[in-house]
Amino acid sequence: MYYNEETVIFFNGQFIKAKDASANLYSQSLHYGNGVFEGIRAYNTTEGARVFKSYEHYKRLKFGAEVMNIQLDYSEEELTQITYELLERNGLKDAYIRPLVTTGVDMSLLTSKETNLVIQCWEWGKYMGDKLLRVKTSSFQRPNPKSCFVEAKVTGHYTNSILSTNEAKNNGYDEALLLDMNGNVAECSGANVFMEKDGKLYTPPRGHIMAGITRATVMDLCKEEGIYIEEKHFTLEELKTADACFFTGTAAEVVGLQSLDDYQFPLAWEKSQGHKLMKLYKDEVLGLRQKRKAS
Ligand code: PMP
């Protein structure tokens, strides 16, 4: 699904076949989860492949590397250029792009001096699908921001996302919603959350969540379209009185919720602000809004 005999990846400065690449079993990333990654999408637009918010994604990758003391010498511009070349070499226009920075052979708990950069890409539909999600409140919380850098996409952090997703799916739900250490709603295992009440939107502020690039895009779209949006903490009890709710993420894009535990969101998805934003987001990633503004 992710690669075949012909797939090309970028690995430590070279474009090589995925089937010819190998990783070291003594890598610190494999043993301790000390690595950083990104999830980016490219869209097939009338002007060809367009990597959406490439600079922002690579800025976040570099931020993660910096806080983990991992050396990454590429600039955002260089990484973007490599990404476009990689898409071209794989003949892909609509694609999911996965840059991953791993550390070297080192069993100490000090960041290894050796760094590996791999960029992979593959065709991937909307991660959480198109149907409305049935979500379970997780028994796992998002990590305490004093125990790690929650805004860095560190590979090891994702065991928290895996625990919550396993729990939700094993109980017959589609996805998990996690609270923060103070009991406020934080985010989904791999996406941010917005709730709608009386036509207004609310989303948790930064601090205990991933600073989602889709979240920021959706907030910008709200401002442009005159949709009320406020960053504020809210509890699970408040969320269970909301009219509607949706998740945002690069892989998931904008996806609505049908229910949270036993609570059914009462507003029809098609009538919600989330639905409107889902369509606006699609236009934005395809560059159609930019084009309209320019003409
Ligand atoms: N929260 C978590 C925990 C995530 O892993 C992601 C995916 N990066 C998001 C939110 C959404 O972020 P983005 O919109 O930048 O993909």
Automatic annotation (TrEMBL):
EC number: 2.6.1.42
Pathway assigned to this chain's UniProt record: Amino-acid biosynthesis; L-valine biosynthesis; L-valine from pyruvate: step 4/4; Amino-acid biosynthesis; L-leucine biosynthesis; L-leucine from 3-methyl-2-oxobutanoate: step 4/4; Amino-acid biosynthesis; L-isoleucine biosynthesis; L-isoleucine from 2-oxobutanoate: step 4/4
UniProt-listed Gene3D superfamilies: 3.30.470.10, D-amino Acid Aminotransferase, subunit A, domain 2
Keywords: Amino-acid biosynthesis, Aminotransferase, Branched-chain amino acid biosynthesis, Pyridoxal phosphate, Transferase
Domain of life according to the entry: Bacteria
Annotated GO biological process: isoleucine biosynthetic process; L-leucine biosynthetic process; L-valine biosynthetic process
GO molecular function: L-isoleucine-2-oxoglutarate transaminase activity; L-leucine-2-oxoglutarate transaminase activity; L-valine-2-oxoglutarate transaminase activity
Catalytic activity annotation: L-leucine + 2-oxoglutarate = 4-methyl-2-oxopentanoate + L-glutamate; L-valine + 2-oxoglutarate = 3-methyl-2-oxobutanoate + L-glutamate; L-isoleucine + 2-oxoglutarate = (S)-3-methyl-2-oxopentanoate + L-glutamate
Cofactor: pyridoxal 5'-phosphate
InterPro entries associated with the record: Aminotrans_IV, Aminotrans_IV_CS, Aminotransferase-like, B_amino_transI, BCAT-like_C, BCAT-like_N, Class-IV_PLP-Dep_Aminotrnsfr
Any Pfam family matching the protein: Aminotran_4
Family classification: Belongs to the class-IV pyridoxal-phosphate-dependent aminotransferase family.
Function comment: Acts on leucine, isoleucine and valine.
Name under which the protein is recorded: Branched-chain-amino-acid aminotransferase
Protein source organism: Tenacibaculum gallaicum
Lineage of the organism: Bacteria, Pseudomonadati, Bacteroidota, Flavobacteriia, Flavobacteriales
